Structure prediction request, 159 residues.
Amino acid sequence: MRAKGDAGLVWDETALDTYLAKPQEMVPGTRMSFRGMEDAADRADLIAYLKQAAALDPASDPSAAAAPRAEIGAAVLAIEGDPAYGEYLASECVTCHQPSGRADGIPSIVGWPKDAFVRALFEYKTNVRSHQVMRMVTSNLGNEEVAALAAYFGQLSPQ
Ligand code: HEC
Prediction:
C-alpha cells in the first residue's frame, strides 16, 4: 500500500474500482484478505455509497481540526523483544490469529516488520484503532511484552 502511494497512486474512484475487483492483483501482498468483488455494478453501488457516507462524515471535512493522537515513543520502538517469551505470550493470540498466517476473516499477523506490529498494538491500546476485542487483549500488555510478541510473530513466515 505504501509503495503504491509513494509511486503516486491516488485513491480516486477508478483506482478504488480496480482495487475492489481484485485487491491482490492491484496491490500484491496486501493484507486485506478479500477475494474481490466481481460484479461491476456492485462495485459502482459500493463506491456511490462510500462517497455519500464520506460526505456525511465530519472527519472528511478538511476544515475540522485533526484529532489529537497519542504518539508512540522511539524508546518503545527500540526495545528488542525476546521471541521465546513472545511465543509463550502468543498462546492467547493464536486462538484467533493463525500461526500459519492463514487469514479467514481474522487478519494474518505473521512475518510483519517489527515497527508495524508494535504500532498496530499501540493503536488498539490507545483506541486510535477501535476494536473492542483487540483493545481488551492489548490493555494488559506492557512494552516488553509487545516487543516480544512482535519478535515472535515477525520471525514466522506464512505457510
Ligand atoms: C478473540 C480473537 C482475537 C484475539 C485473542 C487476538 N486478536 Fe488480534 N485481532 C483480532 C481481530 C478480529 C482483528 C481485526 C481487528 C480490526 O478490524 O481492526 C485483530 C487485529 C490484530 C492486529 C492488526 C492486524 C492488521 O491487519 O492490521 C494485530 C497486529 C493483532 N491483532 C495482534 C494480536 C496479538 C499479538 C494478540 C495476542 C496478544 C491478538 N491479536 C489476540 C482478533 C483477535
About this structure: The radius of gyration is 18 Å. Residues 31, 92-93, 95-97, 106-107, 109, 117, 120-121, 129, 131, 133-134, 137, 149 surround heme C (CB under 6 Å). The chain has a mean pLDDT of 88. The chain is about 50% helix and 0% strand.
